[in-house]
Amino acid sequence: METTERNPTTLAWVLAVLIGVGLAGGLYWNNNRTLTHRYDQAEQRADSLLSVKFQLEGDNRDLKKQLETAADDKDYLNKRIDNLHGQLTQRDQVVNTLRQTSTGQSRTIRNLNQNVSRLSIVRDSLENQMVAMHDKINWQSQSNASLLKQQNEQQQEQQNRMDARLLTMVPRSAITGDAFRVDVSKSNKKVTAKAKKANTLTISLNIPSVLKLEGIQEVYLSLTDEQQKPMIPALHTTTVTLPDVNEVIPVHATQAVNFARNPQRIFFSLSPETAIKPGIYRAAVFTKDAYLGSVEFRLRDSFWFF
Asked: N or C: which terminus of the chain has fewer CB atoms within 10 Å of its end residue's CB?
């Protein structure tokens, strides 16, 4: 009987212990889970705070660099400000100088304006004098033109009378060109009389209007020696028709001459390609049907040491 009574009690105690243990285990597990969760949260918070710490440290380093840069910028700006102060001082000096210069220029401009006014008065006076002078010059020019015209008419009339008188005194065939000139020059353009050094021959003459040559005609230059032989090789020969005879002449130069401009001067210039011997030579000028005149000239020999 006692055994039977004890068993339920024991069982009750066992159950109570088990329940207690269960409650204690539940409470421990629940507390342990809560602690674990809190630990996890604390660990996450610690990681977050550590990350924030690292970020703050990086920001701090950036801020230090920015502060250093700002300090450098401040020094640079201070230098710039000092330079600007110096430039402002120089500008003030320049402005003062310009003001003084402007004041002087203003005085100069006033003086110039006064001078211009005086010069304008003088200019007006001079213009009036110039107008009067122009009128006088025009009158004198007209008078001179009239006098020149009268003189030209008188000279032409005298020339015509002289030509007519000359024609009555000598036949036209006896009238030739005049003022013949022969220039012999060396290769350096200096004049020479030595045959050995002759490089260029220039023959010129005047054609008087009394010859009554007309239009454009070919004029021939013929150079011959005392034996009537060509002085130098000729370009060709041609026949000229003269009043008494037809003559074949050697031609050393030719040119077309407009005889509408008589009187005039004709020039021939030639450079011999062969050596010229010393001697006396004759330069004669012809047209196809007229003899215009001639001139003699001498080229002498050279000594061996010249």
From this structure: N
User: No. of H helices and E strands in the chain?
Assistant: 1, 9
Are 202 and 268 spatial neighbours (Cβ–Cβ below 8 Å)? yes
Contact between 269 and 198 (Cβ < 8 Å): no
User: Residues with Cβ < 8 Å from 209, sequence gap 6 or more?
Assistant: 159, 163, 262, 263
Q: Which carries the bigger pLDDT value, residue 2 or residue 19? A: 19
**160 pLDDT above the threshold of 80:** no
Given a contact cutoff of 8 angstroms between Cβ atoms, the answer to whether 195 and 279 are in contact is yes
User: In this structure, which amino acid lies at residue 235?
Assistant: L
Amino acid at 244: D
For residue 95, the SS3 value is helix
pTM of the complete model beyond 0.90 = no
CA distance 209 to 221: 20
Q: Are 270 and 183 in contact, with CB atoms under 8 Å apart? A: no
Other CB atoms within 10 A of residue 218 CB:
13
Residues 70-117: tens digit of each pLDDT: 888 888 988 889 888 889 888 889 988 888 888 888 888 988 888 888
Task: Kindly tell me the burial class for residue 263, based on how many C-beta atoms sit within 10 Å of its own C-beta (0-12, 13-18, 19 or more).
Answer: middle
> Would you say residue 240 has pLDDT above 90?
yes
